[in-house]
Amino acid sequence: MDSAYQGYASGSLDKDAFATRLFASVGFDMYLCQSFAKNLGLYGERIGMLHVVCSTADAAKAVLSQLKMVIRPMYSSPPIHGALLVERILADPASFTAWKAELKDMADRILKVRSSLRKGLEDKGTPGTWNHITDQI
């Protein structure tokens, strides 16, 4: 799964995590890629993580050994600046609350712009269907 826009799609971290929680609740083994580049405005900081959910300890051990073999040659010391920024925001209750409010404002603005664009295209009689502009997340 990819969670690059969590909170940015709907304005709610919880709502945007629905699919992840659903998959976990039914016991799916999965990889979840989570990025903070978009929802925290940290473009270029390469901040994100990979979560692996395994149904057994043996599977988790096997996956971890393979991940170590893949990751080690790619980098020894990943960048830390973005991670420190994310930690600072998520660890401080006031900053976390402020970030969630700003994230909601940004998401609401995007939804409004999409709605206006769709309406404008439909009002002008532009050929085609335009519901995908407002239906996508």
Describe this protein's structure.
This protein is mainly α and 137 residues long. The longest helix is centred in the last third of the chain and has 31 residues, at 93-123. The chain has helices at 13-16, 18-25, 57-74, 81-91, 93-123, 131-135, and strands at residues 2-3, 30-35, 48-53. The two termini are 15 Å apart. It is globular. The chain contains 6 helices and 3 strands, in the order βααββαααα. Helix 4 (81-91) crosses helix 5. The protein is 56% helix and 10% strand. The chain has a 3-stranded mixed sheet, with helices on one face.
Q: Top keywords for this entry?
A:
137 residues; mainly alpha; 3-stranded mixed sheet; 3 strands
Strand content: 5-15%
Structural class: mainly alpha
Please give the radius of gyration in angstroms.
19 Å
Number of helices: 6
Strand tally, please? 3
Mean pLDDT: 91
Shape, principal axes of CA atoms: globular
Give helix % range. 55-70%
Q: Which regions are unreliable across 5 or more consecutive residues at pLDDT < 50?
A: none
Largest sheet data: 3 strands, mixed
Give me the strand/helix succession.
Answer: EHHEEHHHH
Distance between the termini: 15 Å
**Widest β-sheet, arrangement of strands:** 1-2-3
